[in-house]
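RECORD TYPE: inverse folding
INPUT: structure tokens
STRUCTURE:
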């Protein structure tokens, strides 16, 4: 029998969006953190990584988030509250989101006893819009 144990954590995402409004936001990356500190460190690492490439205003905003707002971020995460921050660089907005979640364990495909739903799944091709060009 499989035992389902859930563990708490945080789902972290980084989105980018052109400010001209012609395209929807794009998911740049995601990360599953298993503690508030890990989620907080993920954002700090991302900010440190991109800050040298940002314009002066956005770079200052990134460093302010890193130093002045980090305690507020950590406090929100410790209280399992969602957290969002954005930085605008020229015509692109970068947004980080962190949400508290419950992670479910994945069934190992080599186990002898899988849940019955494992045999009921019928994958299908994703729907793609018809191209007219």
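DESIGNED SEQUENCE:
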């Amino acid at each position: 029998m499989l035992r389902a144990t859930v563990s708490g954590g945080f789902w972290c995402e980084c989105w980018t969006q052109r400010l001209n409004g012609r395209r929807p936001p794009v998911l740049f990356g995601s990360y599953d953190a298993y503690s508030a500190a890990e989620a907080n460190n993920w954002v700090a690492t991302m900010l440190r990584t991109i800050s040298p490439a940002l314009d002066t205003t956005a770079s200052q905003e990134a460093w302010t988030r890193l130093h002045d707002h980090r305690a507020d971020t950590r406090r929100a995460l410790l209280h399992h509250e969602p957290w969002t921050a954005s930085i605008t660089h020229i015509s692109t907005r970068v947004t980080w989101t962190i949400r508290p979640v419950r992670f479910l364990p994945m069934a190992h495909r080599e186990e002898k006893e899988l849940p019955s739903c494992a045999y009921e799944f019928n994958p299908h091709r994703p729907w793609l819009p018809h191209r007219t060009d």
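NOTES: Confidence is low (pLDDT under 50) at residues 126-133.
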